[in-house]
Each structure stands twice: as C-alpha cells, then as structure tokens.
Amino acid sequence: MADKLIIFDTTLRDGEQSPGASMTKDEKLRIARQLERLKVDVIEAGFAASSNGDFEAVHTIANAIKDSTICSLSRANDRDIARAAEALQGAASARIHTFIATSALHMEKKLRMTPEQVLEQAIQAVRFARNLVGDIEFSAEDGSRSDPDFLCRVIEAVIAEGATTINVPDTVGYAVPELYGNFIKNLRERVPNSDKAIWSVHCHNDLGMAVANSLAGVKIGGARQVECTINGLGERAGNCSLEEVVMAVKTRRDYYGLDVGIDTRHILAASRMVSQTTGFVVQPNKAVVGANAFAHASGIHQDGVLKARDTYEIMRAEDVGWSANKIVLGKLSGRNAFKQRLQELGVQLESETDVNNAFAKFKELADRKSEIFDEDILALVSDESVTSEKEQFGFVSLSQHSETGERPQAAIVFTVDGKEVRSQADGNGPVDASLKAIESHVQSGAEMVLYSVNAISGSTESQGEVTVRLQNSGRVVNGVGSDPDIVVASAKAYLSALNKLQSKADRVAAQG
Ligand code: KIV
Ligand code: ZN
Fold this sequence. Notes:
Elements: E1 3-4, E2 6-9, H1 11-15, H2 25-38, E3 42-46, H3 52-64, E4 69-75, H4 78-87, E5 94-101, H5 104-111, H6 115-130, E6 135-141, H7 148-161, E7 165-170, H8 177-190, E8 198-203, H9 210-219, E9 225-228, H10 242-251, H11 253-256, E10 258-259, H12 267-278, H13 299-307, E11 327-329, H14 335-344, H15 352-368, E12 372-373, H16 374-382, E13 393-401, E14 409-416, E15 419-426, H17 430-442, E16 447-455, E17 464-472, E18 475-483, H18 486-511
Parallel strand pairs: 1-10, 2-3, 2-9, 3-4, 4-5, 5-6, 6-7, 7-8, 8-9
Antiparallel strand pairs: 11-12, 13-14, 14-15, 16-17, 17-18
Bound molecules: 3-methyl-2-oxobutanoic acid and zinc ion.
C-alpha cells in the first residue's frame, strides 16, 4: 500500500491572515464544512489566543466538524496553548499547533532571545501542550533559513517531549525546490528520533514556488504532510495551493506514489466559496480552478480533444467539480429542489430560517433572470442577508439616474441596526453616487483601496459580483455583493465591507 500524504488546510488561519480576507464566524464554519466534505485531514481553524472572535470560531468549528482533525495555532507559551486547548474542547479529534522562530535573524531581531532560550521555550511549550492534547504539531518558524545544527537540536528535543508532527516552514517564500527538499531530507536523517513524528512542509509563495517547494519537501525530503490553502490564499503572495498540490500528487501518482484522501469533486465549490467569501478573485488562468483551466481555445487543441481527450487534457474537469455550465434551476423550482441543489454544491446552511431566506432570494433572482447557474446559487448563499448572523448594515433598495452629459444621482434605502435610513448623493458615475450616498450617512471615514466587478457566469445577463476593499485605522476588509444590477451589487458590497469593518473593530475591542 502506498504512503498517505496528509492534507492540512490552513485557509481559515494563514489564509485569513491575508489583508482583507478576514471572515466572520459563520463564514468560517461554512468553509470548514466544505473542507470536511473535501475530506481534508486537518483543518487549522484559527489562532484561538489571538482574539475572542478567533477563539469562538475555533470552538464552533471544533464542535461542528466530525470527520477532520481540528487544529488551533498557538505561540509557544502556556497562555496561548491553554487557550487553544480550551477552544478545541468538544472536538472529535483535536490538534494544538505551537510554533517559535528558529532562524538566527528571527531569534535575534524579532524575539530578542538566545538560541538556548528558544530551545528551552520550545521544550516547555510542547511539554505543556502534551498534557492537554495528544496530537501536537511543532513548527520551527522561518525553518528554511535556520541553522540545520540548531534545528536538529530543537526538533530532537520537541519530539522527545511528545510532538507528533514536525513542520519546517518556508515562512518568507525564500526556498527553492531542490535545496528545500534536501534540507528536509538532511534533517530527517540527522535527527535520531525523526521516525517518531510525521514531517510536514509549509511553503509561502513569494517567488511563485510554494507548490514546487512543497512537492520537493515530499518527494526528496520525505515529508508526509503538506500545509496549504484553497486558491493559495495567504499573506503576501499566498500559501501553497491545496488544489494544485493535491492534483499534482493525484495526476502524477506514477511519480509521487502517494495516496491523498481528498474528494477532489468538491474542489471547485470550495474554491468558489473561498473566493466569494473573501473577495479574492481567482485569476482565469489559475491551475485547476481558473475559468480557463479546462478551456481549449486553439483549433488544434479543440480538434485533438474531440478525437481523444488525453491528447491535451491531463485531468478530467469533472474530477475537480467542473460540470457543463448547466442551468440548474428556474422560476418554477420548488424549495426541495433548491435545498437538494444546495446539498450537491456542498452548501449547508445553519438553520431552516437561513434556508428560507436563501430560497426567497432565489425566487427573487429567478423572477429577474431566467437561467440560474450553480455560480448564481453560490453567490446568493454567500450574501450575508441570507444568514441569520446579525449585521449592522443591510441593503433595502436603490434608485439611480444617469444620462449622458448629466451628473449621475443615486438614492438608497438601507438599514442600520434594523432601522431604515434614506440617503442620496451624486457622483462621477452611478456606482460612485450610490456609495457616496451610503458614506454620507454612515461617515465611516474608510478609504476604498480596491473596487472590482466580475460577471459571475460570463455574459451580460449574468449577475455582477463586486468586491470592495476598505481600509480604516489599520484594518483592511473586503466586502462582496452580487446582483444582476451592478450598481446594486456595488452598494451591497460596500455595506458588507462596512459590516466587516465593524465586526473587526468589535473583535479588536474585545481583546482589550
Ligand atoms: O509561515 C509560517 O511560518 C507559519 C507558521 C506559524 C507555521 O505560518
Ligand atoms: Zn505561514
């Protein structure tokens, strides 16, 4: 039997650290459920000690998910570790992931600690964690730039204390595949008790090599866990992408000789869910999940694929969740058919009220748009007015007027803490006027750092999906809104971003 490669997903922790990608508890839970459907082995649900919001998210996910191990990150100190253990209470399978930096640069400049102090703190942390939970991962932050002799001492010591997984991150994306693979191999050969732990790779994508480095860590280094995120979401240039690493190992099983437990048919839905939740659009030429990943435009390719698929296709589109862009439902579809389609798409709404809200939105949409695609349904359920989570701002209605040679005007009705307010403004265009109308009432003072529109199903009849990124007092959030009318979608996206700014402010305040 082939070895198993453990897939550790950190979309909800390292992915969420990406500026603007912060998610609410309900959004995280929805993504965690999709990761469970994907059969991800370990879900890193957050960093429990970092905020009350993160603690709650880890705790909720730990108690809702049964088939994946749930993990919380913690620094190498008793307070963080105890908080992680508390958040994980109730989990069917729990892991504490503790880390400390081991490179000379990080130890001296960031931690201001000597190597001996770092070694001692790593030992203490694992010893403390081991008394709370049986499954302990230790990460040597900036591991790829650490002195191998020192790293060997730290790793040997933490394995002796009971660490069951050893992770050697390429924290700053500096590694190159061959060197990184050999670095891991060398460590495994030199650490006397290396066989008592599973070795893991965690690579960032600053030089575009996160997937290649992770695969080298597996093939050359013998790592048997890969840490990754959906769509490669993550700080700066992101993390190793789950869909790419999984499909590489599956497609080139002849070379890697490893099994992965992922049910790849749910990959595309996971990708869309993460993109729609965070507002991080997937580039069309992105491997596996990009809109063009399986599109053959050139005549020679089309001809080849029609004659024999494998002339130009190395994976089957349907194996990663692409189906022909079929019309799934219409105006006459009933609640049961809608619920069933949600299930097939991997969407589990939290309550019957949420299903009813989503169905009402679906009916509204079906009245305006005759063909409803999977993409429309996914956009619809990621609309926050569907979930029962209480939001401060909610969209009600909008009218706008624009005419060549005249300054566009917009009048909007929206709710603030459940109470309707009206506001109007003019602007350079109808979108500008609508957002100015909201801002003139709310006076958030936030700066807009990104505005983008995307046609969900590729034609002018499709819904527009708008992402608005706002920045205020050092906080960055993305709001997403969708509607066949892009001015309305823009207003929804702006209100969604304001809600996130608000909930982020609450989270920071709660930390005291
Ligand atoms: O990149 C990194 O080093 C990390 C660790 C906390 C595992 O994310
Ligand atoms: Zn990382």
